[in-house]
Amino acid sequence: MLADAQLLLDYASVFVFALTGALVASRGQLDIVGFIFFAVLTAVGGRTVRDLLFGRDVIFWVARPSLILAAVAAAIIVFFTAHLLESRYRALLWFDALALAVAVPAGVDFAISAGYGAIIVTMAGVITASAGGLMRDVISNEVPLLLKQGELYLTAAFGGALAALAFDACGLPHGWGLIACGLVTFALRAGSMVWGWKLPVYRSSPPKVIPGIDPNEP
Fold first, then answer.
1. What is the spatial distance between Cα 159 and Cα 195, in angstroms, rounded to a whole number?
2. H or E element in which residue 194 lies
């Protein structure tokens, strides 16, 4: 059961993240190879980092190459349909939110299945969900979504992972915990985009003027 759930989450996460990578390529007006590059990079980046950090003998997409084909399929679909979208950036944001809501449970499920504790489970969910999108945005010379001021992105991932841990701590079925993880993640991210939910940001104060000292001096 756990293995089937993890496989389903991996395929879903790869496909939806690949859609976001391909949408970035469409905004850059790249050719089909560029679409495939961004789609595959975004789709497998997070889980590849996860597998490397956890010392897996075989990276997940090496063990199951069909996942790469799923990302390529997403790239081709976007290449021929992106022009139909009213706003590719808005579509990118919503697909990214959906991908986040799938990838966090995938990372959480991976770590719980491996027997790790709460801290590692949380970090596995966050890394799995964020690393691929971070690579996508950095290479496309965009400000990463997870670093944009006031955005609930990493917070949404943390919230989803904690929801899954809470379900497990209460002895509820593991599958329900993964569903709660995805729903909480998506709700927080969607709330940030639609209603402007955000955490307080740091506001610096003007430096004090001290006689004889230049405030601009390092």
1. 18
2. helix 174-194
Quick one: which of 217, 29, 58 has its CA closest to 140? 29
pTM of the model: 0.86
Q: Give the three-state DSSP class for 65.
A: coil
The sign of the CA dihedral 146, 111, 188, 201 is: negative
User: CB atoms < 10 A from the CB of 133, how many?
Assistant: 24
Interhelix angle for 32-53 vs 66-81, to 10°?
140
The alpha carbon dihedral of 82, 44, 69, 96 has a sign of negative
pLDDT digits (tens, 9 = 90+) for 26-47: 999 999 999 999 999 999 999 9
* Cβ neighbour number for residue 30 with a 10 Å cutoff: 17
Per the CB < 8 A criterion, the answer to whether 97 and 170 are in contact is no
Per-residue pLDDT tens digits for 86-141 = 899 899 999 999 999 999 998 999 899 889 999 999 999 999 999 999 999 999 99
Neighbouring C-alpha atoms within 13 Å toward the C-beta of 88: 17
Distance separating alpha carbons of residues 175 and 211, to the nearest angstrom: 64
